[in-house]
Write a structure and sequence with these properties.
The chain is of the alpha/beta class and 352 residues long. It is built from eleven helices and eight strands. Helix 5 links the parallel strand 5 and strand 6.
């Protein structure tokens, strides 16, 4: 049963949705003012005081580093992809949630303002998320297994699409990904969006369908990079999904869970929270369920970090030979192996 605080949050969400509907009814013409109103509303969710936020230009887009006061994982980094239906939102609107996640994990977070529809339809947002991921790898020199991608709502769907694109470009997958109430089917065909959609205090199916078409642009709404639910979900980083029962996107997550059961080399944990609305994690300052959900996210990421520390077998010429490699490859391996041994011996002697 939802807490009293959670029920109050749902009440205020409905008020916010009713106020926004007048702008939403204006279609594209209402988007500029809707963006301003959303920034104002979501800025009420403050970031922890100990977080430093430093905006900067990342190529053609705005970005910001969120730096916690205390580092538990100084070598890890979160890449955060904000929600907002691909039409609204920014790292400023999500500052409170980004700052809390960064503080609790004890790691820096890179928040990006990817380009928004309808001015910038697909593949703009996905190109921007991939640009940021490559920037972390190539400019900031992070190991891929030190990167955690987190996103909410449209940013959650973008997180999954980013994993698909990473695989297509033959880049290494990140350590893990976390998606809060992800929008994975922009066609809005899930049962939760079609049957009793009034349960959702924030999202309206009709508006979501329109936003999906704005984002897809000239591309099919069912393209896997637009609606990643329809993609090949094999060989992706391990993922955690949190979703509430009171949202139209519930089945975007449950259908994803069913599809991944048939995928190869991909693990997914889906946690369905009874009585929770869309991206309830925003309310961590006031809502017990929000605090608990963030703790679960951090626990999951910590588990993935520990798993990545598991020892791997040392590659030697002997165990390479058992793999049936060519003699040229084995000769190169032998030279490399002997070089490593000489280097280790020299280092050991320098300590004496």
């Amino acid at each position: 049963m939802a807490s009293v605080q959670a029920k109050l949050m749902v009440f205020f969400m409905r008020k916010l949705q009713n106020q926004a509907q007048e702008l939403l009814n204006q279609g594209i013409d209402g988007i500029p003012l809707l963006r301003l109103e959303k920034e104002k509303a979501f800025s009420r969710f403050k970031s922890p005081r100990t977080i430093q936020c430093k905006p900067f230009d990342l190529g053609h887009m705005e970005a910001a580093w969120f730096t916690p006061q205390d580092f538990k994982h100084p070598n890890k980094v979160i890449l955060y992809l904000h929600g907002g239906g691909y039409t609204t939102g920014s790292f400023n609107s999500h500052r409170g949630l980004i700052g809390k996640l960064s503080t609790e994990l004890g790691a820096k977070t890179l928040g990006i303002n990817y380009r928004l529809a309808p001015e910038h339809p697909y593949p703009a947002a996905l190109d921007d998320s991939i640009f940021a991921y490559k920037w972390l790898l190539e400019h900031e020199h992070y190991n891929p297994k030190d990167i955690i991608i987190i996103g909410d709502s449209a940013g959650g769907g973008l997180t999954l699409a980013t994993l698909l694109r990473i695989r297509e470009e033959k880049l290494p997958q990140p350590l893990t990904a976390v998606m809060m109430s992800p929008w994975t089917d922009l066609a809005i065909t899930g049962e939760s969006a079609l049957i009793n959609p009034e349960k959702d205090p924030l999202l309206v199916s009709k508006n979501a369908k329109e936003w999906g078409l704005w984002y897809a642009g000239k591309e099919s709404i069912l393209h896997p990079f637009v609606s990643p639910l329809y993609g090949n979900l094999s060989d992706l980083a391990p993922m955690l999904v949190q979703v509430g029962t009171e949202e139209i996107l519930l089945n975007d997550s449950t259908r994803l869970e069913n599809k991944i059961k048939h995928a190869k080399n991909t693990s997914l944990t889906v946690d369905v929270w009874s009585g929770m609305p869309h991206v309830w994690q925003f309310g961590w300052q006031y809502i017990p369920e929000s605090k608990k959900a963030i703790k679960q996210i951090i626990s999951y990421v910590e588990h993935q970090i520990e798993n990545a520390k598991a020892p791997t077998s040392i590659i030697t010429p002997d165990n390479l030979a058992s793999k049936g490699l060519t003699q040229k490859t084995l000769d190169l391996a032998q030279v490399s192996f002997e070089t490593v041994k000489l280097g280790a011996k020299a280092l050991k002697n320098s300590w004496k």
